[in-house]
Amino acid sequence: MRPNRTLGDAAGAALGTARAEGIHHEAFTYFGDVGFLGATRDFVLAGLAADEDVLVVVPEPGTSLLRSALGRAVKRVAFVDMAEVGKNPACIIPVWQEFVERGAERGRSVRGIGEPVWPGRVAPELGECVLHEALLNEAFAGPPSWRLRCLYEAGVLEPAVADGVWRTHPVVVDGGLAQSSTRFRTSGHGTSGHGTSGPAAVWSGEPWPDPFAAPLPDLGPPRAELAFGPRDLGLIRAAAAAAARAEGLNSDRVGDVELAVHEVATNSVRHGGGQGIVRFWSDGGLICEVSDAGLVADRLVGRRRPELDLGGGRGLWLVNQLCDLVQLRSAETGTTVRMFVRG
After folding, report:
1. How far apart are alpha carbons 280 and 283 in whole angstroms?
2. Which residue has the higher pLDDT, 24 or 9?
3. Which of these, 34, 244, 248, 327, is most buried using a 10 Å CB contact count?
4. CA distance linking residue 118 with residue 256, whole number of Å
5. CB count, 10 Å around CB of 11?
6. Residue 315: its pLDDT value, please?
């Protein structure tokens, strides 16, 4: 159980965000179980009173706490376990995409609560949570208008994550008060590189590296490293399977690794200059990395459900479903996709 210290709920209505349409994206920092309920219960009930559809995507024990606090109203609220769908943060946006689209199709207003960070998240996952929050603003930049409150337990936040909260949310409820964040940065658009064109962040004002373009941490010398070209995809697939078996992964996970690495290497051949490098590390599981000289133009690639009539974007979507964690970084210096697969 969390210690029962509370900051209370926001005083008055939340401040307006930078957009009249699209996502109204706010963060809420809290302490303990009482603070969690202060951040969630009234927010949910206000949505129900306005006849909105409400989706809550949080891990336990938050789900059980809120269910109990809502009483009979709980029947009108949808719940999804964040620890399951958000284990790989790249898989969270599709949950909100489906929810918002379903509401728009039914002519319903919607609001949601999400909690992407919880105790036990390791450093690579925390970095992906910050990137996820930044990309939410780009994924839902246009209509319909909807409201998302992102929860953060203040007592367990790493400093970089706490800073990222203020960088990626136009409104932060902190100490019970809703404040406009002066560190929040809006987005522009980019069109160069491989993949389809899409939004690209403009990080102006106070320096903060674009998390999509920031280099990944150095993992030291890899266990194996292979350069590849168009004729080497079979070799790369075999090397991935061999690395997974050496790590002691079962046959299903070996197949996942083999397919995931093949999909990313194929993207390198098709869109990243025709060649790349694959590397493997062992670190409590298998880490596979594919890098090439390409530039990803669609910053949301793999984070949106691919349409049935579109051929692009399916590979990285599949990779996100197969792996426990996927880190994609792309800049003028090239693109890196790092995949984590555990037993």
Report:
1. 10
2. 24
3. 244
4. 26
5. 10
6. 92
Mean predicted confidence (pLDDT) in 101-112:
97
Q: What is the Cα 68 distance to its own chain's centre?
A: 28
Q: What is the pLDDT of residue 309?
A: 56
Report yes or no: 327 and 129 within 8 Å, Cβ to Cβ. Answer: no
Place of tokens 């909807």: 146
- DSSP string for 250-282: -HHHHHHHHHHHHHHHHHHHHHSSS-EEEEEEE
Tokens of 263: 């999909």
**Identity of the residue numbered 312:** G
Whether 197 contacts 298, CB under 8 Å? yes
How far is residue 47's CA from residue 76's CA, in Å, rounded to a whole number?
Answer: 10
Quote the tokens at residue 319: 């990779």
Residue-level pLDDT at 202: 44
Judge contact between 184 and 203, C-beta under 8 A. no
Q: Give 23-46 pLDDT, tens digit per residue.
A: 999 999 999 999 999 999 999 999
Cα–Cα distance, 185 to 187 (Å, whole number)? 7
Query: Which helix or strand (DSSP H or E) is residue 136 part of?
Result: helix 123-139
Residue 239: its H or E element: helix 233-246
What is residue 216's predicted lDDT score, i.e. its pLDDT? 97
Sign, CA dihedral 56-37-18-197, equals: negative
pLDDT at 200 over 90: no
DSSP, res 74 = G
> From CA 70, how far away is CA 44, in angstroms rounded?
9
Q: Identify whether the C-beta of residue 154 lies closer than 8 Å to the C-beta of residue 29.
A: yes
User: Residue 12's pLDDT is what?
Assistant: 32
